[in-house]
Amino acid sequence: MPTDITNTSDELFEIFVNAQTFKTILHSFDDLCQSIRIDRKIIGYGKRSLYKVLTSKLTSWKSKSLWTKIDKRGSQKEYENGNACADMKVCIVGAGPVGLRLAIECALLGARCIVVEKRDRFSRHNVLHLWPYIITDLRNLGAKVFYGKFATGQIEHISIRQLQCILLKIALVLGVEIYPNVTFIDVIEPISTQQAWRAHFKPEAHPIVSTYEFSVLIGADGRRNSLQGFQHKEFRGKLAIGITCNFINHHTREEQNFEEISGVAKIYNPQFFSELQQQTSIDLENIVYYKNDTHYFVMTAKKQSLLDKGVILQDYPDAARLLARDNVNSTQLCKFACEAAQFATKCSTQFAFEFAEDHHGAADVQMFDFTSLFHAVNASRIIERNGKQILMLLVGDSLLESFWPTGSGIGLGFFGLFDTAWSILKFAKHEHPLKVLVERESIYMLLSQSTPENTKNNHQLYSINPATRYQNSNSKSCTIDEIRYLYDSDSIPTIDMNNNHVISNKSNRTPTRRTQSFKQAPSPLSLSSSSSDGNNQQETVFEWCEEIVNSYNINIKNNSKSFQNCLAFCAIVHYYRPDLINFKSLQPDRPISNFQILFDIMHNQLSLPLDRKLQNSLILSMKSSIEERIRQSSIVILQLLYTHFHHDHHEQQLKQRRSSTPSLEISSPTLQKSKKPIDNTNNINTNTTNNNNNNNNSTVKVSALVAHYSNGDTSSSANNYNLINLQSERAPTFCFYCKEKVSIQDWFVVEKNVLHVKCFKCDTCHLQLRKTNYQVLIEPHTGKISFHCRYHNLNKQQKVKHKTKQKI
Length: 808
Hints:
Layout: H1 2-18, H2 22-35, H3 40-43, H4 49-57, H5 61-74, E1 89-93, H6 97-109, E2 112-117, E3 127-129, H7 132-140, H8 143-146, E4 157-159, H9 160-173, E5 177-180, E6 183-188, E7 198-202, E8 216-219, E9 232-236, E10 241-248, H10 253-256, E11 261-265, H11 270-280, E12 284-291, E13 294-301, H12 303-308, H13 319-322, H14 330-345, E14 365-369, E15 372-376, E16 380-385, E17 388-394, H15 409-428, H16 433-447, H17 480-483, E18 487-489, E19 497-498, E20 501-502, H18 511-519, H19 532-549, H20 567-576, H21 591-605, H22 612-624, H23 627-649, H24 651-658, H25 680-689, H26 695-709, H27 716-728, E21 733-734, E22 741-742, E23 749-750, E24 753-754, E25 775-778, E26 785-788, H28 790-807
Helix pairs in contact: 1-2, 2-9, 6-9, 6-15, 15-16, 19-23, 20-23, 22-23, 23-24, 26-27
């Protein structure tokens, strides 16, 4: 009898290995668990408990080969034999390849993991290009046990559906719980210290997920991310229309002879595309063909060709309107794809391509603008309510949409999920939330720049530790001040920073604590409403503020709501010091981010004594809508700015701005056109800084600017006109890169060079840079300045050193 039971279990395991649909995989695994009498409530959910039972019960050669692979992977030191996250409960939204692969990592760490998927089938036939390290990773997890053709010979691609089946089987073996037909709605906050974080799902009466409590929530459901609190930005380039289609592979002899096209572009093989256009009137930029479970084609078509073939009905300048369903003839689109596929495969005239079906049961052909890409502004958040914390993270396309012609989608997706698993490990070790966020956001800055060429070559040593994968991983490239807004707590954190390290802990938020924190805040202005002197001072400050911000179309009143988006404060700073802030980049709907920018400027550039506790209290008050505390904090900040700008060394400048007639004495020698070019940036900075110290020098410089832009015309009317304009408009400054004029409101100063924000890019890879993630390189011989991302700056420095040594 024991022998029969063993044989039955091994046979069920073989059925499980060969299952090819979402439903059959789940059903066959349930049958396997029932045959060996596994009760999850008894054996537990974490610490790889299910996996340990399976390895002891299943002893066939195929199962043993799988156990060997998984055991080797699970022996990495980060997992601590499945005890690293034994107390963690994880919920993953989305059962795509990235979500399932992350679930495997959570199970290896020892956490209990539940995956919810709103669909009940795997229907995505599109084929993914696999980076070398992904092939190594999947092989080490036993992918060939479930799919013998995986990465055979020169094949470096796999369909999404097949990859999902492989990862689903591995996840189930490791104890991951997966529930189809379940839709995530929103998180449910704990209302007491006795409760934990839960979520609202549909159906609401689900026996497991409706009562599941967790401390980590992962968004892996694609660009339509359902997790709240994450902002996304869109990158859109020149219109490029992509078409993907899948045809059924009947595995006939003729189909086996079709040659794959790994990627051919018009500029490299013009004859191919010229013949295609002559024979079919189809004009393409490039085409890719992979043969897998389906015949998968992806191509870039020119808009005029689509209009001529009747695929697009009417031409519109807006891409969304152009490619809307009501403007696309689906029948002509299918015909267009078939003609292109027949030409690319050189099939016989008798052969007819048959479309595969998508999850709606329609022909699997799509047309889209692939230059519209989304990426999340941040990769993580931590929320705390009633002493219960939840770590929220994004992975896959929810985090970073890749540019499909580079084939980087699944490559960057796997890198991002490994980084996410590392953050979960740190969170499970009870590290301070801000330190977890700093490290996660710092590593996220490296993700979009990663390629197979600039990451480490020994793929066998890859783990969830970023240092094993990135060549130059800096876990502290972000500062605590930059990511503080990502930590949303209902308690007041009393945090001191020293070299970007958190030293002290936080204390609970109580009414008593609120009063103490504001008493400790420096307030030159009396906050007592009963003091008439204090009220007079407040009125003076608000009048001064209102006079400035009116020119920025900001209307303020004496209440807290006028300052909640921080634009009034930033306008004051920009009015006096436009070199410190890019006012146009501020967004009214992101007040916390605006306040962080203001705090950084006040602390680092203006050296104003703004208490850290007041900063934290202000941000927390905004989240909780405590208007009285917002009003008090706003008064303190406004008084500091008033004292610094109005009373110190800018009072004369303010008077000049207010006057409606010129107050400068002009002498005829000064009005002569300057023979030497005027350095606009230096003049403006010097004039702003030393205005109070030397008024005569200021007069000469302003007069010189008038002469420079009046072409030597000394007539009184022309002089007066130029002088009046100069009171409201400074000398034009030109961008360091594009050499075009930069208006004052668009000023973005880097290394004493003024430029447009959009021009601040890496000279090598053209990656958009920020003031927190760039490096400057000065050529030793020419003195030429160039800006680079961290990776390319390192390579540039090495090349410069090499050239210097050769010359020596």
